UniProtKB/TrEMBL annotation:
FAD binds at residues 214, 226-230, 266, 269-276, 366-368. PANTHER family: CRYPTOCHROME, CRYPTOCHROME CIRCADIAN CLOCK 5 ISOFORM X1. It holds the Pfam family DNA_photolyase. Binds 1 FAD per subunit. Keywords: Chromophore, FAD, Flavoprotein. Residues 157-186 are annotated as: Disordered. Residues 1-127 form the Photolyase/cryptochrome alpha/beta domain. It comes from Natrinema halophilum. This is Deoxyribodipyrimidine photo-lyase. Its cofactor is FAD. PROSITE patterns: DNA_PHOTOLYASES_1_1, DNA_PHOTOLYASES_1_2, PHR_CRY_ALPHA_BETA.
Amino acid sequence: MIVHWHRRDLRTTDNRGLARAAATDEPVVPLFVFDPTVLEYASPVRIACLCEALEALRMRYRELGSDLVVVEGEASGAVPRIAAEYDASRVVWNADYSGLARDRDRAVRAALEDAFVTYESVHDAVHHEPGTITPNQGDHYSVFSYFWKKWRDRDKRDPVDEPDADDLADVTGDPLPTLDDLEFDEPDATPQPVTMAAARDRVADFCSGQIYRYADEREYPAATGTSRLSPHLKWGTIGPRVLYAATERAVAETDSDGDRESVREFQRQLAWREFYVHVLAFNPEIVSDNFSGYANDIEWRDDPTALEAWKAGETGYPIVDAGMRQLREEGWMHNRVRMLVASFLTKDLLLDWRLGYDWFRQLLADHDTASDVGGWQWAASTGTDAQPYFRVFNPLKQGGEYDPDAKYVREYVAELSDVPTDAIHGWHDLESAERERLAPEYPAPIVDHAARRIQAIEMFERARGET
Ligand code: FAD
């Protein structure tokens, strides 16, 4: 027997590690381990997604005459134990590049060596693994545009097939644990379905039409302009090669240069994901440390009341509040609004990006350490290729530009549903009596953006040692 240990690759198709295992003469035992040292960092919404994706994976294995073996325990004990139970000579898995995952895998490798079981870690989650797209000096690019040019021009691997039923072991797994068994509450949010079938449908749907409008619509949170594939890429319910092949088909199926440009723009976003994977792989400490050093510490404020208002979507800045409420309701937020709320936390509330990252980590169904840390450090002007510290988003202008009819705000901020668009975008400048008349339940702005912008710039100049 040979064990394929699933982790963030919750699919049977376009799974390179699984295909590698299936290509041997040995029947494959599919395994998933609920590891308490990893679950420690999980959250209700993510565990709910994980269990849903695992249930779908299990059903697919059953259709193929096999099953998913599911166990609980530290991976360094559980993986060799299952290998011994099934008399497996080898364990295969797909590489995961975060620091936590690499620590876990080191311990598993050592335990397998002690048990004389061979193993293989296969590159699967990205097209071009860390260390393969590099500048002349250094392990990874720090500037995205250079990375993108190389990423774009490199050949991509083809998708790999699902194993045949004959390649899989005739095993029977125990039922999956419930959220309660795993000591997690039911999530408050209702995230989108995260299964292989949902991923396949979304790719097919997106790549047959919306992808051609992506470049024009991707920045507008009220439009269904983006793919919403991030939870699938996070959990691996879609393979990157299948997705990329679908985008290339979309290129082949159009005669319009504009359409082709739009597909390229989408592919560019896929490359951002891999850029951050490379950055994190070589800098695992950036989950808690600033990527870019400043001469002095940044003097972030300590303001628990402001933090709570931000988390609750009660800042009095409509587009920020809409985003924070979308996050709570759906476990997802539009990228433009993620940038805005992150900028607001760090540059308007002057709070440490790590506080925002922690909140996103808990609530995002698509939380991915590399992209989440990358996005936060970008917004906080501490990251790779980050927003310059003196370019501070104006949440009022951004609301008017990217949500001109305030449709997005009205969808998530019920108190503003009957308020005229101009008043929503000008909320900050209204007399308090007027605000009270229009939406008595909705707060006044908790800070003055113009004043905080100046304070933020001064805070960074002090950190740079310039004042
Ligand atoms: P689309 O626009 O359809 O893009 C397709 C795919 O490209 C995405 O699914 C994602 O895999 C990738 N992508 C797009 N934009 C980015 C980006 N800026 N950085 C990295 N990858 C990108 N993305 C996550 O997947 N997980 C996170 O935890 C996460 N946290 C973020 C935190 C902050 C503060 C910011 C500013 C961004 C974060 N992002 C994160 C990136 C981005 O917001 C999401 O990937 C995107 O909103 C997902 O929606 P979509 O699938 O419809 O994106």
